[in-house]
Write a structure and sequence with these properties.
Number of helices: 3
Number of strands: 7
CATH topology of the largest domain: Immunoglobulin-like
Strand order of the largest sheet: 4-3-6-7
CATH superfamily of the largest domain: Macroglobulin (MG2) domain
Strand content: 25-35%
Length: about 160
Amino acid sequence: MKHTDFNLIPLQIPDFKLFMGYLQEEKALKKENRTSRGTAGSIARGILETQYGFHFCDCLNTGGNEGFKSNPTGNPDAFAEMFGGSIVVNPNPAKNWTAFEYTLSGSKTDGIIKITDVTGNIVQTFTVTGEQGTKIWDTRKIKPGIYFYEFVVNGYSNTGKL
């Protein structure tokens, strides 16, 4: 037998055609999982996990270290509105008066609006109750200047400049 004759010997591997079928199926499933985001991709992923032993991570890709506990995620204003409340101040800047229109979250029915001057001295405090309402601040007897408000509900605060 010459050295080049080995190519002519038929392969006698049991279940070779079946094995090649599995390879083709696995290749097709991998492609479907990679390219499809719909039902077909989900089914392909499920077959790859259950029948072929693949593992896929369902982790959110935050693009940095946002997922670590030491780095807070989320919008603090959205948390304050959800668990505390929201406030709108009009007109701002105030001339003779300003209205604080507030909404409290369903879990808390009272809060405080605190108005301070630039040095931090408290000028006026309002207690707010109910799900929503309006408090009017008469500014006609207040010295012109810059003032700040703090709306505190359920441990969350929302601040602004008047």
